[in-house]
Amino acid sequence: MSSYSRVIHHATSILCSNKGSLAFQQLHRKVFQRVEITQDDFWYIVKKCSRFVVVRNRERTDEWGTDCVIVAKTSLRLCKNYTKQDCRDCQELHLCKYFVYGNCRFGKGRKQCKFSHDMRSEHNYTLLRECTLHELHEDDLFLLLLQNDPTLLPEVSALRECSSVLSALCVRAHG
User: Fold this and answer.
1) What is the tens place of the pLDDT at every residue in 45-65?
2) Nearest-CA neighbor of 127 among 66, 56, 79?
3) Is the per-residue pLDDT at 81 higher than 90?
4) What phi and psi values does residue 28 have, to the nearest 5 degrees?
5) Which run of H or E residues covers position 70?
6) How much is the pTM?
7) What letter would DSSP give residue 82?
8) Sign of the torsion formed by the C-alpha atoms of 133, 135, 138 and 140
9) Where is the C3H1-type domain (predicted)?
10) Is the pLDDT of residue 145 over 70?
11) What is the DSSP track for 11-69?
12) On the CB side of 85, how many CA atoms lie within 13 Å of its CA?
């Protein structure tokens, strides 16, 4: 693994273990503990790499990014057709979305889930490797997916003012 790749991998891992984002200075300090890299070089990598998004806290920031938050990003998504068992040559992960949420009712051993809970299946591992995410811990990968895949966002209920009984039964988010 090149030093450039090592920096990207380590920064991604740090971001995911810190809820997906960190201030630039904090991230640089944490990366620097394992990989010796100047602030200039690190700033260049963060700005140019598609794995990261730079979010400015204020309208004007200096060149070092002291007022910036770095957010982890991926283009990897869960397959929408996987649930229909209808995809060929798919470039998306084949996983149970409730497994990613951490609440699949079938994952507790009672009844087998019909969707995959295997991050290391041949299909999924190939995609993770192509995106250089194969070394991330499962929880970190799930956070990255939840943060980036819009299909994993909860549906918003049209019944904004559900009674407490209806709210308890409704599986959608109430805004």
Assistant:
1) 999 999 999 998 766 555 556
2) 79
3) no
4) -60, -45
5) strand 68-72
6) 0.79
7) G
8) negative
9) 95-120
10) yes
11) HHHHHHTTTTEEEHHHHHHHHHTTS---HHHHHHHHHH-TTEEEEESSS---TT-TTEE
12) 2
